[in-house]
Design goal:
Layout lengths: L1 H18 L2 H4 L2 H38 L4 H29 L10 E7 L3 H21 L3 E9 L5 E9 L3 H5 L4 E7 L10 E11 L13 E6 L15 E6 L4 E5 L5 H29 L14 E6 L4 E4 L4 E4 L1 H5 L4 H19 L3 H4 L3 H4 L3
Parallel strand pairs: 4-9
Antiparallel strand pairs: 1-3, 1-5, 2-3, 4-5, 6-7, 7-8, 9-10, 10-11
Helix pairs in contact: 1-3, 3-4
Length: 370
């Protein structure tokens, strides 16, 4: 750990020196880039220097405690006790600061829920998940905007795409991506047999325009009549938008707004998010090779969670967590689950960050979250 701290401190000093150079101060883009990197490691450096100062103070106090002046030695022993307690706190804060911060954590997100195997019951479960996340967003004071909704007649959902706007939305929801499984007796089941169905959840951070450049020539844009119940313009005005990104084959549909322009804007936001997710997945696969993270981005091909209604339990298979009281959880009270998965991933990242550079393959860049 301390090798990394020394390397990070040296990098911080180098960046500070760079900022003082006249040629850098005259180059706005370079100045911003250096300032951003310096700010990303500043907390680690400040804590490291505070930890070292604490060590020097401890050495001085121990020297006084072993002296002949009994009154001064007693005061020194009290100081040692306080400094030792502060040192333990500093070390804990340092370890947490070592974890590379995901730069996307504060972003808004686009959530996509699709019914999987299980027919109508899968669609009903997808609707339950949508309500769960909507209520969770409401509890946290976030704003939810519906982009597209494909319903079935019995109250189920084949597919829903919505945006969540609020501080830290991605940090809280990013581990929800994956296959969610439900085990329960469907309302239409006359013999009381338990059915197993699935739905997939994808949580995508909204992409900045500078991250993903989309050429208009790569797009095929179709306009069509919006479907669904209600609204004077339904089936009369072509407000719905379907955008196909030809190079990747990604198709985005947005029809919730009554304005064609608003639907196009939302569809482009979803497209950029999907393209960013695709790009980052490819980069992660290239860096990680065949290694699978315990939680990571939540492999969407794998079952991450089971909602067992007969046993009134939710089980997250990635970390072996089981929580009871499904009605409460389905009503959006899922912080307990999210906290547990996030803590598990934080512990994994901390273990990785504390490895010597030659084992982890990362240097000061890892500490900077780059």
């Amino acid at each position: 750990m301390f090798e990394r701290l020394e390397a990070t401190e040296q990098r911080y000093d180098d960046l500070t020196g760079e900022l003082a150079r006249p040629e850098v101060s005259g180059d706005y883009d370079k100045l911003q880039r250096i300032a951003k990197e310096r700010a990303s490691i500043e907390q680690v450096v400040v804590l490291y220097r505070e930890w070292r100062a604490n060590g020097r103070a401890l050495d001085d106090a121990r020297a006084l405690a072993s002296g002949r002046d009994t009154e001064l030695a007693a005061l020194a022993r009290e100081e040692i006790e306080a400094l030792t307690s502060a040192r333990a706190s500093l070390e804990g804060r340092l370890r947490r600061a070592l974890i590379p911060r995901d730069p996307r954590d504060d972003r808004d997100v686009i959530v996509e829920i699709r019914a999987g195997t299980g027919g109508d019951e899968a669609a009903l479960f997808a609707a339950d998940l949508y309500r769960m996340y909507a209520r969770y967003a409401d509890r946290r004071g976030w704003k939810l905007e519906l982009d597209s909704l494909n319903e079935i007649g019995i109250g189920g959902i084949k597919e829903v795409v919505f945006e969540v706007h609020g501080g830290g939305a991605y940090s809280r929801l990013k581990f929800e991506s994956g296959v969610h499984r439900v085990q329960r007796v469907p309302a239409t089941e006359a013999q009381g047999r338990i059915h197993t169905s699935t739905a997939t959840v994808a949580v995508l951070p909204e992409a900045d325009d500078v991250e993903i450049e989309v050429n208009e020539s790569d797009l095929r844009i179709d306009k069509f009549h919006s479907g669904g119940a209600g609204g004077q313009n339904v089936n009369k005005v072509e407000t719905a938008i379907r955008i196909t990104h030809i190079p990747s084959g990604i198709v985005v549909v947005c029809q919730d707004e009554r304005s064609q322009l608003k639907n196009r804007t939302k569809a482009m936001a979803v497209l950029r998010a999907r393209l960013l997710d695709q790009k980052q997945t490819e980069q992660a696969d290239e860096i990680a090779g065949t290694r699978k993270q315990q939680v990571g981005g939540g492999e969407r091909s794998e079952k991450i969670r089971t909602y067992n209604f007969p046993q009134d339990r939710l089980t997250d298979h990635r970390i072996g967590l089981t929580v009871h009281n499904l009605p409460r959880l389905m009503d959006g009270e899922i912080d307990e689950v999210i906290d547990a998965v996030s803590a598990h991933e934080e512990a994994r990242l901390l273990e990785e960050a504390e490895q010597p550079p030659e084992r982890s393959g990362r240097g000061a860049e890892a500490l900077a979250g780059r």
